[in-house]
Amino acid sequence: xxxxxxxxxxxxxxxxxxxxxxxxxxxxxxxxxxxxxxxxxxxxxxxxxxxxxxxxxxxxxxxxxxxxxxxxxxxxxxxxxxxxxxxxxxxxxxxxxxxxxxxxxxxxxxxxxxxxxxxxxxxxxxxxxxxxxxxxxxxxxxxxxxxxxxxxxxxxxxxxxxxxxxxxxxxxxxxxxxxxxxxxxxxxxxxxxxxxxxxxxxxxxxxxxxxxxxxxxxxxxxxxxxxxxxxxxxxxxxxxxxxxxxxxxxxxxxxxxxxxxxxxxxxxxxxxxxxxxxxxxxxxxxxxxxxxxxxxxxxxxxxxxxxxxxxxxxxxxxxx
Length: 320
Prior knowledge:
Elements: E1 3-7, H1 12-23, E2 27-32, E3 47-50, H2 56-65, E4 70-73, H3 80-83, H4 87-108, E5 112-116, E6 129-130, H5 141-160, E7 163-168, E8 171-173, H6 188-197, E9 203-205, E10 217-218, E11 220-222, H7 223-238, E12 246-248, E13 255-256, H8 257-268, E14 275-277, E15 286-289, H9 292-298, H10 306-316
Parallel strand pairs: 1-2, 1-4, 2-3, 4-5, 5-7, 6-15, 7-12, 8-11, 9-14, 10-15
Antiparallel strand pairs: 10-13
Helix pairs in contact: 1-7, 2-4, 4-5, 8-10
């Protein structure tokens, strides 16, 4: 029996990864400090260790006690905008934390890692379609910390034979279970839902971009599809099959902010016309990633329509 430690496994994305591992017949173990996760997101019967990846002794003890054979590293401080104001905290959580995790993995002989990276490593790319080879130009401490994390994996492959891959993605939405929801104060779907719940009108920042409807176009992927890609990467590492250093998990076409607003109105039955505010500085008109390499190696695909993404997110989002 193979056991995979999921760091951050009590968070929105991590909890979906845990359930996907269970569905694939693998044994998950969760390590989470609950700074943004919830103990209730961890399924009954799954081993849960509350603590930080910065606690090296706890990490090593967890790896040993549960005979962990691989790690899916989802834990991290993920707020790009806020990271500009909290750079030291961001680097501590994402860079130092990853270094401690890798150090303790090496100490106990665990040599497989799936790293939850980010499309923030690309910054604002010149190209409309982002590939894995698009130049890396992160524009926030968060994006920089994820890129450094990828460098750490690369260097540990040389130094200690680490087998790993990094998954880069943009906006994760939806829910795979009514009891798992996105609690972020910064992500678009929760922001819209929160505004509607408080009787406020959601806002679109800029409707004069060079896009079909004038609003920004972005990649939105369903969290369950993302979780399946993590499991596929873990299985590939487990089997000793070759993987690329990094994969984009992208839609290839993207969705506009106005399309999302329209879908929310349709799904919720709340009739509203979004307010339009001026553009925010630095918002590119369109950023969409290609997922062809992930489709080839990890079975990556977009299995959910926009309406299904909104419907599942709305059903799971706490009301009242």
